[in-house]
Amino acid sequence: MGERELIGPPLDRGFFGRPSDEVAPDLLGRVFVHGPVAVRLTEVEAYGGPGQDPASHTYRGRSPRNAVMFGEPGHLYVYFTYGMHFCANLVCMPEGIGSAVLLRAGEVIAGAEVARARRLGPADGPSAPAARRPIRDRDLARGPARLAVALGLIREHNGTDCCVPGPMRVHAGRPVDAGDVGAGPRTGVAAGAETPWRFWIGEDPTVSPYRRHVPRRRG
DNA sequence: TTTCTGATCTTCT
DNA sequence: GAAGATCAGAAAC
User: Fold this and answer.
1) CA A79 → C1' C3, Å?
2) Residue A88's beta-bridge partner residues?
3) What is the spatial distance, in angstroms and rounded to an integer, between the CA atom of A1 and the C1' atom of B10?
4) What pLDDT is recorded for position A55?
5) What confidence score (pLDDT) does residue A50 get?
6) Which nucleotide is nearest to A66 if distance is taken from CA to C1'?
7) Does A217 map to a domain?
8) Would you say A104 and A187 are in contact if contact means Cβ atoms under 8 Å apart?
9) Which of A20, A104, A135, A156 is the most buried (most CB within 10 A)?
10) Residue A116 resides in a domain
């Protein structure tokens, strides 16, 4: 099967203009493409929406940081966290309602060498490949920060429209049977941890291990 | 295999 | 000033 058949046609804006907890499981098996790298999504989390979601960045209202989440659906929301990581979301719901789906993990199905090079960092830097343990294929995009690195997503991509012709699109891929979709509490969130808005493809090796929120100790 | 901890800085209170 | 939608490596088991 050729790559074209594998990733299918791009999804249109209507796909994203729904509640995030409806879009999230529907995104499993879809393919996020950025330039030469394509990732088949295997794990996602829904945030925000019309109701109150204390775990969402939009819970306390609009701010310069989360403005994209209140914008047009189908755009990319990239944020910086823990002082060193980027995470990527796809905006859902019509404009004015802060809602998005966090891309937590996936399988790299094209551009694996580019993704691996990004994960390893510069060849002559302190994290040179020779000084690092090898990265298994299943770990290339296993976890939200790793996925962002593999796809080359950084701050400048915040607000990118993924529903127009360009290097960044979400393709139909192959939807997953409802029976193969797992659901459970979201990873690493303190508030709203009981809401089962984390969705993954059952038995898929690229799904990241669940970690509950652990309050950090003061130094 | 599981648990713990340091790294690092933006955002919000 | 404190916490955070994390990760990698070390230590413990």
Assistant:
1) 16
2) A78
3) 44
4) 95
5) 85
6) B11
7) no
8) yes
9) A20
10) yes
Is A211 within a domain?
no
Closest nucleotide to residue A60 (Cα to C1')?
B12
* H helical segments located in chain A: 3-7, 13-16, 20-27, 112-120, 144-150
Contact, A215 CB vs strand C, < 7 Å: yes
Question: Nearest nucleotide, C1' to the C-alpha of A135?
Answer: C8
First to last CA, chain A: 54
Cα–Cα distance list, A159 to A30, A48, A199 (Å): 20, 17, 24
For residue A193, the model assigns a pLDDT of 84
Q: How many helices (H) and strands (E) does chain A have?
A: 5, 8
Residues of chain A with pLDDT under 70: 1-5, 123-132, 217-219
> How many independent structural domains does chain A possess?
1
Please report, for the domain that includes residue A157, its CATH number. 3.10.300.10
Domain ranges, residue A69: 3-201
- Write down the pLDDT at residue A5: 66
* Residue A101 is assigned to a structural domain of this protein: yes
Protein CA A83 to sugar C1' B7 (Å): 8
Nearest nucleotide (C1') to alpha carbon of A155: B10
- As a whole number of angstroms, the distance between CA A24 and CA A53 comes to 15
CA of A85 to C1' of C7 (A): 9
Q: Does residue A148 reach within 7 angstroms of strand C, measured from its CB?
A: no
